[in-house]
Amino acid sequence: MGFTRTLMADVLIASELAGTTFAFTDINEKTLDGITQLARRDIEANKLPVRIVSTGDRREALAGADYVINTTRISGLEAFALEKSNLMC
Hints:
Number of domains: 1
């Protein structure tokens, strides 16, 4: 989740991409909800001109896309929890 948030911030540095729509998709609804909530929180807190679309339908997410960035967490949220706990040590 942290990687996606950092990647979004990197994309938004480019003024040409103001007004961007990020379309998130995931086969795991819980994961999709989590990253969507975090992204929306970041966008609202920074008053960014960005739109978030969140869907379990990959075809819907990709429809009309100018760019596609695919990120994958192979080991799931269990690994994320482990990474997070190791960072706090």
